[in-house]
Amino acid sequence: QQGLSAAREAHDEFTRCFAADKRCSLGLAFAPHLKGPLMFKLPGVESGSALESLFIAVGFIVVQWGQAEQALDLIVSMLSHGYPGKKAKRLPVMLETKIAFVRKSIPATPELTRTAGDFEALLKEFEALAPLRHDLVHGAITSITPTSRGFTFLKLDSDKEFNSTRLVLLSDSEFPSLRRRILRLAKEANRLTRVAMESSPHAK
Fold it and tell me: Binning pLDDT at 50, 70 and 90, where does residue 160 land?
């Protein structure tokens, strides 16, 4: 029950801002106790510059992805501790193993049969968005001056013996769509966390 209790406490804290205050999905409720806007100054970065836009865009992706993946962590915890059946010997840590765990567990959990399609859609969206998020976080910017299409990153890949490089584009024209998809991902992951908690036999 310790893991289940911890998951519920984390979810309560998580939803206190994210579910109740829509500003959180835009990163605007970071410090609600402050009367003015909270600003982290970046020396050498001019306000309104393309470089500032880059930092805002990548920061937005990182923060919102954290919201989404933490909700996925809570779903994993609930499936492991909140329902009868075989428990995970060790909770998965990597995103791929979290997705695999949820995908395997949902069909074996009768209480969640009606929402199985929603869980699968969520997992597929995680899989679709994860590569770009990973490349932006682990890649290196090639230039602080954007091209006509956006900013490019250099990603170093390894096949255990050799390294290879490839370019990754953070497209100016595609960012609005990416932003909306990541916001929806976090919102849906949070909704399904509540479903997993409320459907648990321990919740009744």
Answer: confident
Question: Which helix (H) or strand (E) segment is 55 a member of?
Answer: helix 50-81
CA distances (Å), origin 120, targets 123, 129, 189: 5, 14, 11
pTM greater than 0.90: no
Side by side, which strands form the sheet with 163-171? 140-141, 150-158, 163-171
CA atoms within 13 A on the CB side of 146: 16
Burial class from Cβ neighbours inside 10 Å (0-12, 13-18, 19+) for residue 71 reads: buried
CB atoms within 10 A of CB 47: 8
The DSSP bridge pattern shows strands 140-141 and 163-171 to be: unpaired
- Alpha-carbon span 38 to 30, nearest angstrom: 8
Tell me which amino acid residue 103 is.
Answer: R
